[in-house]
Write a structure and sequence with these properties.
17% strand, 13 helices, 297 residues, 2 domains, CBS-domain, alpha+beta, flat, single chain
Length: 297
């Protein structure tokens, strides 16, 4: 188990100035003036969980919008006040505010000539899932995410000997399928989780993520629930209506390499761990990246 992290750090050091190649140069940005619903649609259409916010004139980084910002807006955080107080509960009015109202303005970024190791360390220390890549004038050149790192790990096969039980999160917060979306978003924000397994009668029946909440807004599902435009019509909906039922699972004795490959191949951010029909933990992209960096020789 000691050799993996050492080799991984060596491999990261070898990736100096290769960060763009690993992350990819195709990046979608949005202006701070785009509406919240417009940004949600863009994220959903492209399948992105985060978008850099830039000045359309010079492409300089001004902020970032993530799926968790949408979760906070949809009942889980301070930005929910924009709906409740700023628009007196009128959801249709609030979603036409600009993303400037809910985006993160203090953005952690990495230089395009920097190392992959630096980017990963920033992700781990800040607890964020993606970092914009900028040039020396703060213009966005790309974005690197946990998913990019997991894909790299799965390809260079550097975690041999490590098992799921060594890194999985054992304290798992779950909710029942009849729990409301309001309860879901509140729980996500208060507990600091981007995904929650859904348990009914002790059995895993699905999983719901911040991306599912984003899609609920971005693909127009919320509009099927609206009659008067009141936010409660959107948030009183049970999570069973937006959760994913077909869930990839793993075992605590599975090799970590297999989990990384499954995440990369299936394009998913987490895998619940089931032993003897019981939910014993969950492995996320963040767990995978963080544990490999933090484990010492």
């Amino acid at each position: 188990m000691d050799r993996g992290p050492v080799e991984f750090k060596t491999r990261l050091s070898d990736q100096e100035s290769e960060i763009i190649r690993i992350a990819g140069k195709d990046v979608v940005t949005i202006p701070r003036t785009i509406t919240i619903i417009g940004a949600a649609k863009t994220m959903t259409n492209y399948g992105f969980r985060r978008l850099p916010v830039t000045n359309p004139g010079n492409n300089k980084l001004e902020g970032i919008l993530t799926s968790m910002d949408i979760v906070r807006f949809m009942g889980g955080g301070e930005s929910f006040k924009l709906i409740k107080n700023g628009h007196y509960g009128n959801f249709l009015s609030a979603i036409n505010e600009s993303v400037n109202q809910i985006m993160e303005s203090k953005v952690i970024s990495v230089d395009e000539k920097g190392s992959l190791e630096d980017a990963v360390n920033k992700m781990v220390s800040s607890g964020i899932g993606g970092i914009p890549i900028v040039d020396n004038e703060n213009r966005v050149k790309g974005i690197i995410t946990e998913r990019d790192i997991v894909s790299l790990i799965s390809k260079i096969d550097i975690v041999k000997g490590i098992k799921v039980k060594d890194i999985m999160t054992k304290k798992v917060i779950t909710i029942p399928p009849d729990s409301s979306i309001m309860n879901l978003t509140t729980t996500m924000v208060e507990q600091g989780f981007r995904r929650l397994p859904i348990i009914e009668d002790g059995i895993l029946v699905g999983i719901v993520t911040a991306t599912d909440v984003l899609r609920y807004l971005g693909n127009g599902g919320v509009f099927d629930k609206l009659v008067t435009g009141d936010i409660n019509e959107v948030l009183d909906v049970p999570v069973s209506e937006i959760m994913v039922s077909d869930v990839e699972t793993g075992n605590s004795q599975d090799p970590l390499t297999d989990i990384a490959k499954t995440m990369a191949n299936e394009n998913i951010g987490s895998i619940p761990i089931i032993d003897n029909n019981n939910l014993e933990g969950i492995v996320t992209e963040n767990d995978l990246v963080r544990s490999i960096i933090e484990v010492q020789e």
